[in-house]
Amino acid sequence: MGLGYLVKRLAVMVPVFLLVVTLVFFMIRFAPGGPFSGERNVSPEILRNLNAKYHLDKPLMEQYFSYLSDLSRGDLGPSFKYANRTVNQLIAESFPVSLELGAIALMWALAIGLFAGGIASMKPNSFWDYVPMSFSILGICLPTFVIGPLLVLVFAVWLEWLPVAGWNSWEDRILPSLTLGFAYAAFISRLTRGGLLEIRNQDFIRTARAKGLSETRILVVHSLRGGLLPVVSYMGPALAGIVSGALVTETIFNIPGLGRFFIQSAVNRDYTVVMGTALLYFALIFVCNFFVDVAYALLDPRVKYE
Amino acid sequence: MSRASAIQTIGIPLQPEPAPKGHSLWGDAFLRLRKNKLAVTGLLFLLVECAVFAFTPWVAPYGFETQDLSNTLAAPSALHWFGTDTLGRDLFTRVLYGGRISLLVGVLASLVSVLIGVLYGATAGFIGGKLDSLMMRVVDVLYALPFIFLVIILMVYFGRNIVLLFIALGFTQWLTMARIVRGQVISLRQKEYVDAARTMGVTQFRIVLRHLIPNSLGPVIVYLTLTVPTVVLEEAFLSFLGLGVQAPMASLGTLISGGVEVMEIAPWLLLFPAAALSLTLFSLNFLGDGLRDALDPKGAKD
Q: At residue A255, what are phi and psi to the nearest 5 degrees?
């Protein structure tokens, strides 16, 4: 994999990102109702002043280009609803929370998924295969907003082992991250099982077995690299899914993260915050996809990028 | 010796032998599908569900908005099968109406996605060359976009109206369909019988109509079946966040989010809508997988 490919791959993201910025910007501006239309008893003068303060009275194209130039400097502008706060400040507060939630969820997904899939692939069509695979069907078909409340109902309300909501102690992390990671654990376990089973029938595995290597060594040293390719290529969609799934998870568990903030701002019509958070999400997913592609190319020598 | 047997003895059959029973692609597929218990169960469940949803206004025991403030948060009973909600409305009735909206949005949005995907993919595949590679690069790039955020912004700013909802959801799902159709069209274009038709002077239009469309229908239907649950899920996701179907209408997502609020005192308000949604999703997924295996026996089963 050459450096040229990486550069090319990054270069494609710039126009796409610009396109997204433009699309979201004009979508929000052309929508009926402004950020201050919800507040009652705003006199025309105040409204005019507010609009002037946030440059909403300028021509649309001027607003657009000034937004772009601010954006290129990493400045996402002031918030409309939270007086005297910038979008950057608001994101800086809530983003780490979401990042932590997402990271723990991903950890669960990989740990449970790889383990269950690995076990299932060792003895296909046995008890050890059926049990994890049945669970994985549940995980794939049950949406986050069903799993989450059910987990709360059982472990927080009925058994009272864990807190219902919040984001302070380590116990608060368990249910939300499990909720968010469960579906991906389910999918990863199926992909792991499928990938490892396919590898098992390859000639080089038979050779390894004929050499007298132990099953564990065959699994860890020979099968994993090739067998995990489907899992690696799934990481792109999985990361995107975890990011959007966090919207629901943070709402259910009342977590002060970016997702809940995004939804609230969208409902409040806080233009700059919605723009800023949405752009951050897009950037995040682009970057994740990029790294996933690189990882895939490193793992699979057959992949040739021109 | 009667004439008939005389003829038979010299080996001429009295009646023309019935032509060997043809197995059409669809007949074969149906036979295979019938052996898949999960898919058949899913299909039956969906058929019953559709029938009930079609006649919901007559089947539902109560009115959708009928409140009984003297009987709020009642537990499931013979009078109210699924109990009642915070306003004393019958939950069974609301699940029926809500499920109807969910499935309707799912099917309509999936049809939107099929329409876009088939047109786009078929154009790319049929014209080929530079345009094809350009169109497919666009699809590759769009794949990386998290559409759900665009849909959320769209729903928030342009009123939460149900037509906009299913069109927007349809727009999030057409990419894979476009790829599938393009692949089909390209492989079919090179088939001998299409060449034969062309040498016989069949018009381009008739080739598309007679050969390309019917033969790419299978994968399209399979993917359509698998798109419906995805869209139902997305709609429920939006409704759960309060951004989808708006009151007085309710979808299963709305009902689940209402159930979460009171689950500590009335868990049935969460459990029944969640079960209805999950069973529908299970059925659609199993049917889709079953159809895929049935229509493409060579296809990989994971």
A: -100, 130
